[in-house]
User: Fold this.
Amino acid sequence: MATKKEEKEFEKERKAAIKARYKKMKEEGLEKYLTPEQISYNRRRRAIGMVWPFFRFLILFGLCFVILYPLIFMLSTAFRPNEQMNDPSVVWIPKSFTLDNIKDVWGVMKFEDTVVNTVILNLVASVLQVITCSITGYGFARFKFKGKGILFGIVVLMIIVPPQITTIPLYLQYAYFKPAWLAKVFTLGKSTSLINSGWTMYLPALFANGLRAGLFIFIFRQFFRGLPKELEDAAYLDGCSPLKTFLVIMCPNAKSSFLTVFLFSIVWYWNDYYVSSSFFTQNDTVALMLKNLNTNLTQQLFDGQAVSVRQIIVWLEAGCLLSITPILIMYVFLQRYFIEGVERSGLAN
Assistant:
């Protein structure tokens, strides 16, 4: 399978060859042998080739402005002294820069402990989800069994149905967690609460039902369906079991899909606050701290006095900057593999 770089080089060489051939025909006077339709087509192609880069620049510039405007505003505000927010002469570039906003928010968010707690939750849940979703997707792609269509329809519903519908049943299940065999051994027949524990994240991921699990199963299913069947046949002839074939043959060929799903899972668990706020009241994560930052700033920096958003916005933007920095750092180092994984995974099929 050709990479994106190889495809671009091939397309560039093809266009160069066509241009050189046309130039040679023109020099030898062979253009007179072209039909009027061919001449008109060549003129249209040249006109489109001259105009399209201009329109492409306008489209990309507009999209970049829409996407980058919040980031530019955040950077401009996070390092700006609070009093300059009311200065009409300051638009984008502050007259002076300060790190006091970052320091204040760092303390209010308890950022060190919060990041460590969030990373542990994310890594464990993401690793479990990648393992279980890959096995599930492989089963849907390669095996035939009764009820396969119905079960895959449930997977599609996992993508469509919003999490708000299942929050209350899940909360009751976790609040009064009482599996029979576990209750007898550890709880002496009594129920135990999983609220405020990482198990509210780990258990769904362990059973391929975590955040966006339906989409991840679909990605793995599409990728494994695209692999040659002969790989499995050769493994079976060598005496491999289905599980060993999956581990030894399929997983190495699906590295790009594993990386794509893992990064998607990390980002979604990092940014999740709805599910976290439903099951956590004491277990702090970055998303929950950011969600409650306005209230915490009012209590700790302004002694509970009511303040407007404009008075507190420099600290809010500093909190947003701190929250996205770990994800941006991860993306900077892994973006090449991530983009390649998206191209080769089921998203590109």
Notes: The mean pLDDT is 81.
